[in-house]
Design a protein that fits this description.
With about 475 residues, the protein is an alpha+beta fold. About 50% of the residues lie in helices and about 10% in strands. It contains 15 helices and 13 strands. The strands form 4 sheets. A 6-stranded mixed sheet has the order 1-2-3-9-6-4. A 3-stranded antiparallel sheet has the order 5-13-10. Strands 7-8 form a two-stranded antiparallel sheet. A hairpin with a 2-residue loop joins strand 7 and strand 8. The longest helix has about 30 residues. The structure holds protoporphyrin IX containing FE (HEM). Protoporphyrin IX containing FE binds next to helix 10 and helix 15.
Length: about 475
């Protein structure tokens, strides 16, 4: 279902006719429902075949950019002329404050500069044991229950695994932390943000109540209070520690040497949890789902993990050796990018493909559509990890594939997420086979992230046991 009025660029800049405006207004409630249910359904069909599409999305003039050269021109060359869109900031600021994900301008730049070294490759390596430990705990839980034949929701279990990882890599010393309650509060907060997004799109005021809004307010209060208390306790204890919180406490802005304030630390630690755990869990759930559908690809992955020689129960897998497994995860993120849309607002006039786009315009880069674009991919719907082999990738425009974004605001946790995916797959895939419990691949729905609707129910059996 495509419910916007669209036309490929160039588009006349006149407002819709009176009749169109009335019809649009009448369709509003349905459109809000669509955005809350699955925002991708509200995109014009042309985003999958054209480069630049201007459409009215819930009454707002929105420019969709699905062309790698134009994306580079925008997100890389003219990044400084773009800012965060209200759609994102209004939904996330109550819990994430003004951290790296939500801030703009100098405030964003200083925080990004300060935090960047924390996510360096060598630092991420230090987190691998914690990642493996969480995966081993999931493996033990599955071992204990396999044999009963009851399906396991892999999405829920991957959420738990990646949440355990982010909490243990971030706040390893906070033994008093109620991890389950913290996770529930984060879920409760994120779940109601789709309403905030939809209401912002239709121009409703920020105070307008919506389903889940009261729970969202108390979840935000609890989450911020808990993280602030952890920071204060760490400061009182007089040592920073080697986990993410410790690294962030010691981090200094390379320009000027300032440390982050406690408020910025709270904003960013919550940002890492919110931006990092669900996205990675979803990627893993889709990976296990697609591998179950493609046994020959799964067999290659299992073989590669075995050949890395480290798949013994407590061995450390050599993640660098898992190049095909990495290709598989990349192909999964092509078909199911966990963050399927990048949104910006023009702060100044920008030039795009020789056209001038005025300040104040909403620009959407529909990653999900870019990754399935008819002009960029052969058989875009086919799951084929060989697309990311060294030969096949050579010559592909870097901005035809961007699950982690592009330009200065590219995902800071990209290396962390990729390492985490490989670590978890290296522990779980040699141990289990996964058979689909439902009749079809789950539907992908974009609310805050691109989730498999209804989860990923699978029967999990120890490998070799039928
Ligand atoms: C598979 C997992 C992940 C995916 C698909 C993903 C995707 C993305 C994308 C597309 C952006 C760019 C958004 C934009 O340009 O508007 C982004 C930004 C960001 N991501 Fe990730 N992410 C993942 C994991 C993580 C992890 C593990 C962390 C932290 C531990 C993280 C932290 C962030 C932050 C802080 C930003 C904002 C960067 C900035 O604006 O400077 N992400 N992510």
């Amino acid at each position: 279902m495509h419910s916007t009025t669209a036309s490929t660029f160039p588009l006349s800049t006149t407002s819709p006719s009176f009749r169109e405006a009335v019809a649009e207004a009448a369709a509003f409630p349905r459109l809000v429902q669509t955005v809350v249910r699955n925002m991708i359904e509200a995109w014009p069909a042309e985003v999958y075949s054209e480069s630049l599409v201007e459409a009215r999305l819930l009454g707002r003039r929105t420019l969709f950019v699905s062309d790698p050269r134009l994306i580079r021109e925008l997100l890389v060359d003219q990044a400084a002329r773009l800012g965060r869109e209200e759609v994102m900031t209004r939904s996330l600021t109550p819990v994430l404050g003004s951290g790296i994900l939500t801030a703009d301008g100098e405030r964003w730049r200083a925080q990004r500069r300060t935090a960047a070294p924390v996510f360096r490759h060598d630092r991420i390596r230090d987190f691998v044991p914690a990642m493996l430990a969480a995966a081993v705990a999931t493996r033990a839980r599955w071992m204990a229950r396999t044999g009963d034949g009851a399906p396991v929701d892999l999405l829920a279990d991957m959420m738990r695994t990646t949440f355990d990882i982010i909490v243990s890599t971030m706040m390893s010393d906070e033994t008093g932390l109620d991890v389950a309650r913290f996770g529930q509060a984060m879920d409760a907060y994120l779940d109601q943000t789709r309403w905030k997004m939809a209401l912002t799109l239709v121009g409703a005021p920020a105070w307008m109540p919506h389903p889940g809004s009261a729970r969202g307010v108390s979840a935000a209060r609890y989450l911020r209070g808990t993280v602030t208390a952890a920071i204060e306790s760490r400061r009182r204890g007089g040592r920073s520690g080697r986990d993410l919180l410790g690294l962030m406490l010691r981090a200094r802005d390379p320009e000027g040497g300032d440390a982050m304030s406690d408020e910025s630390l709270t904003d960013n630690l919550l940002t890492f949890i919110a931006a990092g755990h669900e996205t990675t869990a979803i990627t893993l759930a889709w990976t296990l789902c697609l591998l179950a559908e493609h046994p020959e690809i799964e067999a290659r992955v299992v073989e590669e993990i075995a050949a890395s020689g480290r798949d013994a129960p407590h061995g450390l897998p050599d993640l660098d050796a898992l190049s095909y497994t990495r290709q598989v995860v990349m192909e999964v993120m092509r078909l199911y990018p966990a963050a399927p849309l990048i949104v910006r607002k023009t702060l100044d006039e920008v030039s795009l493909g020789g056209r001038r786009i005025p300040a104040g315009r909403s620009i959407h880069v529909p990653i999900y559509a870019l990754h399935r674009h008819a002009k960029l991919w052969t058989a875009p719907e086919r799951f084929d990890p060989d697309r990311f082999g060294p030969n096949e990738s050579a010559g592909r425009d870097r901005h035809a594939y961007m699950p982690f974004g592009a330009g200065p605001r590219i995902c800071i946790g990209m290396g962390f997420a990729m390492t985490e995916c490989l670590a978890i797959l290296a522990v779980l895939l040699p141990a289990f086979r996964f058979d689909r419990a439902g009749p079809a691949r789950p539907e992908a729905r974009f609310t805050v992230t691109l989730r498999p609707h209804g989860g990923v129910p699978m029967v999990v059996s120890p490998r070799g046991v039928r």
